[in-house]
Design goal:
This protein is α/β, with parallel strands linked by helices. The chain has 18 helices and eight strands. The chain has two domains: 179 residues, no CATH class; 242 residues, Alpha-Beta Complex (Spore Coat Polysaccharide Biosynthesis Protein SpsA, Chain A).
Length: 507
């Protein structure tokens, strides 16, 4: 509709695309601010009774959502336990031709210390998979050339003969049309590795690429499990493979606030793993290298490239692309760096970067929605999943917190005699109490995902990890709604307010 209006006024095609995209960038943030203004100010001040009915409905919805997610969380937990008991190597070796496939592990790096990278390589050496079937590519940045050259020297010295090959790439700086970050680095890695395979006459249809953050520690059975799923699923090149992501590398050393946010992220991914029909790729994941080449590699001008590469595939294959969940985990770091306030700052920046995933909405409107070869059912499903997620992320916690009290406080004295208003606080307390039961039950399940406790950590910390969830109402606003709201507001304002890629400090 917007495109037709602009064409009517004889706007040029390139201007149409730019203006239409700009409109779609504004919509998510504008919708959120309208919601907050109407609910918090208009209803509370002018229609407090309506506001009270609204918050009762909202709290009930919130609790239903918690228990709904808990059901999927429980399902994923059961599948996680079962997957951990399977000998994936034995299952894989029962498939003819498995040894003809190569695992390419791609890890962009920027300013990370060698100790972080060394730990990742040590974990790769521990996997139960033939190392001569694994190629590791470490992608540095020209902006960090001095540090990266030292890393290259150390990696060659310590691991040069441990895998089929270790490849080093350096992503040039200040390239036109790029945003410095993981996406543009992965784009460069993809192009360089295509040349690498061509020079060696390696069939790229036999290459499975795993795109990992630099601190990703793989489960010993990950590559066996990945290869088994790849070789047994129908049309493997039309799937991405999403493992369970745990933020466990330094979880025992992290402060409670950071742990609650990290575990909340794990729980969110766990619930989606049991709903493959709505699953997007997130963080570390795997796919066919041939498919990556076919869709033109990673986008080099976005911040949240992990999800966008899936959307590119979905669009390129006209809706015939899915995510296959893998219940064998990979583990990553929390943002804790040893300093309490610096860790909280890092946590906010990380969530804000994830919240910038709202940048997918205008892209989906300009590409998926306009792709006539994709069924409307698929378009609506993915557009709704993405849009509803970022909308409720920014609004629900704020509304649930503020509107439980504001409409009552703002009501006229005469209305205070209303039985509904008088009993609303008690009603809301009981509704939210039922929700907290589900939350604490889920928090107890979290103990099953923890790594072995270091000897210098006291046993009482098990109890702290459960009790720390009383902080959830705080974290869901300070490290959930607010950074998400900021990200969407920045996209709405555009220009100098747009976010670039900010690397999370690792120790």
């Amino acid at each position: 509709m917007l495109e037709r209006i602009l064409k009517f006024f004889k706007v040029k095609d390139e201007d149409i695309n730019r203006r239409e995209t700009r409109v779609y960038e504004i919509i998510p943030g504008l919708l959120i601010w309208i919601t907050l203004f109407v609910c918090i100010f208009v209803l509370s001040i002018f229609k407090p009774i309506w506001g009270i009915f609204f918050i009762i409905f909202l709290d009930i919805y919130w609790v239903i959502r918690i228990w709904y997610m808990f059901a999927y969380l429980l399902s994923s937990w059961i599948r996680y336990i079962k997957a951990g008991k399977i000998d994936w190597g034995e299952k894989l070796h029962g498939i003819n031709g498995w040894e003809n496939y190569i695992h390419l592990v791609a890890m962009p790096t920027y300013k990370e210390p060698y100790d972080v990278i060394k730990q990742t390589f040590d974990k790769l050496l521990e996997v139960n998979y033939q190392k001569d079937k694994m190629i590791i590519v470490l992608g540095g940045e020209e902006r960090d050339e001095v540090n990266f050259l030292k890393i290259v020297e150390n990696v060659r010295r310590d691991y040069g003969d441990k895998f089929q090959d270790i490849v080093f790439t350096t992503h040039p700086k200040n390239l036109e049309g790029e945003i410095p970050g993981k996406g543009s680095n992965m784009y460069h890695i993809g192009r360089e590795m295509t040349k690498y395979f061509e020079a060696r006459n390696i069939d790229i249809s036999r290459v499975i690429i795993s795109m990992f953050d630099i601190e990703t520690w793989t489960h010993k059975e990950y590559f066996n499990c990945l290869a088994y799923h790849y070789l047994t699923i129908e049309n493997p090149e039309r799937h991405s493979y999403q493992p369970l992501v745990l933020f466990n590398n330094n979880v025992w050393q992290s402060n409670p606030i950071v742990r609650v946010v990290a575990h909340s992220t794990t729980f969110w991914l766990l619930t989606d793993l049991s709903r493959a029909e709505r699953l997007f790729t997130f963080s570390s994941h795997s796919m066919s290298f041939k498919t990556l080449v076919e869709v033109g590699y990673h986008p080099k001008d976005v911040v949240t490239e992990d999800t966008r590469i899936f959307l590119h595939c979905l669009n390129h294959f006209n809706g015939d692309y899915r995510v296959c969940p893998i219940f064998i985990p990979v583990s990553m770091q929390t943002v804790d760096v040893g300093n309490f306030f610096e860790s909280l700052k890092n946590q906010y920046i990380q969530i804000r970067r994830w919240g910038w995933g709202v940048e997918h909405f205008p892209w989906m409107m300009m590409n998926l929605v306009k792709n006539k070869k994709i069924a409307w059912k698929i378009k609506i499903k993915y557009l709704w999943n993405q849009s509803e997620g970022v909308y409720t992320w920014a609004t629900l916690p704020i509304l649930v917190t503020i509107m439980g009290y504001l409409p009552i406080k703002m009501a006229d004295l005469s209305i205070h005699y209303n039985v509904l208003i008088h009993n609303t606080p008690y009603l809301l307390e009981r509704i939210m109490g039922f929700g907290m039961i589900g939350l604490f039950t889920a928090s107890a399940m979290n103990l099953f995902f923890l790594p072995k406790k270091p000897k210098n950590i006291k046993t009482i910390n098990y109890l702290i990890i459960v009790v720390q969830w009383v902080l959830f109402p705080i974290t869901m606003i300070l490290f959930g709604s607010i950074p998400s709201l900021e990200a969407q507001t920045r996209l709405m304002l555009g220009g100098k307010h747009r976010l670039g890629f900010q690397v999370t400090k690792k120790t």
